[in-house]
Amino acid sequence: MGTISITKTLPGDPAALFGTITRPQTWKHWFTIHREFVGEAPEQLGPGAQVCAKVTMLGMNGDIEWTVLDVEPARLVRLSGRAMAGLTCAFTYDIRPSGSGADITVEGEFTGPLITGVLARTLEKHGRQQLDQSLDQLAAFTASN
User: Fold this and answer.
1) Alpha carbon distance 66, 95 (integer Å)
2) Which of 1, 6, 42, 55 has its CA 20 to 30 A from that of 108?
3) d(CA 91, CA 99)
4) CA–CA gap between residue 135 and residue 107 (Å, rounded)
5) What pLDDT, in 10s, does the model give residues 51-98?
6) Helical axes 117-144 vs 14-21, angle rounded to 10°
């Protein structure tokens, strides 16, 4: 099992950041591991929504079937994912107002028969780097739209 957690203060309106996260068509602009959707993505994510996406992690491509577990408007999005080889993951985006921007915490967990030892630590390190970059791109993209 591996875990990732990152908190950043981002400029911008928390509701606008939330809106960007929950509109899958924006992912190509900020979500660094995202490549494209398999099939059609919903316009807006809500509880129970599902979307299949091609992603790249550690130079490897794969599909993740995302399911939205929970949404609290302008504050929280919780997703679970399933991929090949028994990989499962769960990610939570928690957005809180902070001064003129927002504190956003992203927590992720991934499990599977191959996620042990060195691979788990490598995924954690790479995942933190990708999340850090994704959050910077999220802020930039949201500010420009």
Assistant:
1) 20
2) 42
3) 25
4) 12
5) 999 999 888 899 999 999 999 999 999 999 999 989 999 999 999 999
6) 120
